[in-house]
Amino acid sequence: MNEHRFGSGDRGLVFGEADGRVYLKDVYGLTAGYCSRDEGPSAARGLLSVRTDEGVFQGGDLTPVEHRFDEAQARLVWTAGPSLRIESLWAFDAETGVCHRQDTVVNVGQKPVTIQRCLARFPFTPGRYEVYGQDSRWCNENQGHWRELNHGSVRFWCEQGRTTQGSSPFAVLRRIGDRAVGFHVLPIGNWTIEVAARTHWNDSIPFAVVELGLSDQNLALELAAGERIELPEIILQPIGAGPIHQAAPVLHRYLLGRCCPGAKPEAPVVYNTWFYKFDNLNAEDLRGQLAAAAEIGCEVFTIDAGWYGAEDTSWHSQTGDWRENRAKAFRGRMKEFADEVRRAGLGFGIWMEPERFCPSVPVRTEHPEWFLPGEGDHYRLDLRKPEARQYIRSEIVRLVKTYQLAWMKVDFNFHMGRDRTGAEFWTYYRHWYGVLDQVRAECPETFFENCASGAMRLDIETLRHFDSHFLSDTVKPVDVLRINEGAMLRLPPGRIGKWAALRSIGKSVPTYGVPPEQDVDKVVVPSGATWDRSETADLDFVARVCLSGMVGFTGDLAGLTETHRKRLAHHVAIFKRWRRFIAGSVAHLLTPPELKENRSGWSALRLAHPDNPASLLFVYRLHDLSESRTFRLEGLDESINYRVVDDEGALVAQRTGGQLAREGLEVTLPRTYTAGFFAIEPE
């Protein structure tokens, strides 16, 4: 019996080889197989689970054809029945311990084969396990839970073509009291992760079996003779025996190096019109916001939904008609307003939802053969048709060039329904991402922001095709803080966009215990995704929630006091100084992610850059009685002397990296719902 090792211990994989078969013996310290042997029931063996119209193939049903190992890669090949050949390429990153798996299916037969299931499989030895996954709903994304794995299964999946509606494509398996391993699907269409407990004979202790990849719920993907498809990529992440949030920096470092090579090195500061008056757009009205946005240091002014269509109806009912509306908004003169924006020193941006088409839009009536029904009364393009792909690509590029766009916010606000082609939207997404890549190549200066009713499509694969990702439609600062904590278990912090949505109420709401003449002007923020319910907030807290990623502003900036705008300009200046650092940073979460409803305690994270010895520390005091808390800053160079300064430049501490790790840094915030920002730099 031979062994093939990548890395070691908590940061390595071990393959076994016996009788011509290759199997996993160990995954990051978790024993795989049946006590590291290729034994047990067929449903808990092997590295694939396949079902086609030719049969079911798993464990010993798969015929090994080839296996090859080198220092950092493994290539495994099997056949499943008479027609399918599955090639599995594993790439191990020695620096981080992260392993990438890409499976390709080839029809080597003489007739079509219908694939009903083809999932990567990872079996683990009998024991007691628990599973972590994230629920993901509108304004409630990245909400993590642990579940004990009993007999049966825990399954995560997405809904109707929206890759992070329902669940995030991420799960962690932990042997209780032992180590853990993380699994990420890079979705191309609908996806699934199923973690099952399976028993063997009279043994009462079940195996844990993880199966993941392209959803098999309604899969009937026909593969023609000679055709090949690449299945969604899978990332294995070492977690170790500690809390899962401590493993985030390793994943971030891997993703920044391997999945974001084409990302823009920094993001402009954007103002978006949405939370000013939503889709009620008026050039005269917006000039005040433009002046205020320029005053605080914004670099892009983006017009959200409501600028397009041929009728005087809602933005939602005209999506797909990307002619400028002449009945309202700019009344056909948006190019002139765009020129005003540029004369004010800002780039111009617009909102677009290129994938959704309302029934009455001209292109759908002119070319009904290009369209398929979505959920409800909306339609989507059949991207299998080259002319449909060409149309949407040319429309996006036309808008970029017509309005000389510095920014485009790309939204996605509908359910795609069931994929009647049987491909679980694999074909659709493959073509959609191809369109996006073509557009970005043709418009390299434009910043493309991803949005999907907030974050209903916030995954690693989408990360490759956009410059930033919108975190959530809720802009309530505490919501944003909590949702962002969960997101950082899956995504690097500097790629996530957040908005500070602000409006002034002056002194109209008195402060208890403060005489009216001594009271201060106040700002309010939405308590969710609209202004229907609002609450007062500390302006610094709102801004510092956003500073750890890509910063945006919305709401009524012109209505803020001069003092408030100067304070926002202060925060914008800090972001501009550090934004290239933030864009390439990894996040050390100093407190574990909490559910959105949890308003208690403190939250803190340290951003570090692989090529820079400095760090940035963000600390948030929520509803907590303690005015001070000490945070240990591990991972700094223990021998270097560091200066810790706040955002005003005041010296807070001078310590060695070793002292900051052992003794920590005490942070004092006298009031609840306030925040601190600190730069930690070598002397």
Describe the 3D structure.
The chain has 683 residues and is α+β, with helices and mostly antiparallel strands. It is 19% helix and 38% strand. The chain is built from twelve helices and 41 strands. The longest helix is centred in the C-terminal third of the chain and has 22 residues, at 562-583. The mean pLDDT is 96.
Features of this protein?
683 residues, globular, 12 helices, ten-stranded antiparallel beta sheet, alpha+beta, eight-stranded parallel β-barrel, 38% strand, 41 strands
Helix count? 12
N-to-C CA distance: 55 Å
Q: Which structural class is indicated by helix and strand composition?
A: alpha+beta
Helix content bin: 10-25%
**Unreliable segments of 5+ consecutive residues:** none
Strand proportion:
35-45%
Mean pLDDT: 96
Biggest sheet layout: 10 strands, antiparallel
Give Rg in angstroms: 26 Å
Shape: globular
What's the β-strand tally?
Answer: 41
Summarize the structure.
The protein has 683 residues and is of the alpha+beta class. The strands form seven sheets. Strands 7, 8, 9, 10, 12, 13, 15, 16, 20 and 21 form a ten-stranded antiparallel sheet that branches.
